[in-house]
Amino acid sequence: MSDIQEKIEQERDQARVVCDAQGAASGECAAAWDVVEELQAEAAHQQQKRPKKNSLEQYCDDNPEAAECRVYDD
After folding, report:
1. Is 10 inside a domain boundary?
2. 65 domain residue, yes or no
3. Domain that holds residue 41
4. Percent helix, strand and coil across the chain, each to the nearest 5
5. Distance CA 15, CA 38 (A)
6. 17: closest CA among 37, 9, 4?
7. d(CA 15, CA 11)
8. I want to staple 22 with a disulfide (CB 3.0 to 4.6 A). Which of 10, 11, 26, 62 is the partner?
9. Is residue 74 in some structural domain?
10. What is the mean pLDDT of each run of 10 residues along the chain (74 residues)?
11. What distance in Å separates the CA atoms of residue 15 and residue 20, rounded to the nearest whole number?
12. Domain tally for the chain?
């Protein structure tokens, strides 16, 4: 996820540069900010797709050797 956040920051910086050079009302400025918005939407979509872990799952990720986290084969 950090890759997409880095890309968002890069595109945001680029949009600011374009808007400073071309003007806030220019089509290039609007297009640059559209790219930022699309990346932010994709980041939100990816975050929604990941299933939320409950507290036991989080605990077991951090402490796989704990008794509560043992998995027994039948």
Report:
1. yes
2. yes
3. 2-69
4. 75, 0, 25
5. 13
6. 9
7. 6
8. 26
9. no
10. 87 95 93 96 86 88 91 78
11. 8
12. 1
Q: pTM value? A: 0.63
Tokens (6 digits) for 17: 């540069």
Tokens of 26: 């220019």
Rounded CA separation 14/12 (Å): 5
Q: What is the pLDDT of residue 50?
A: 75
Hey, what are 24's tokens?
């806030």
For residue 1 the two structure tokens come to 């996820």
Our CA angle for 53, 56, 62, nearest 5°, is 85
Amino acid, res. 59: Y
Q: In the 8-state DSSP scheme, what is residue 72?
A: -
Separation CA 67–CA 69 (nearest Å): 5
Check: CB of residue 11 under 8 Å from CB of residue 36.
Answer: yes
The pair of structure tokens assigned to 63 is: 């402490």
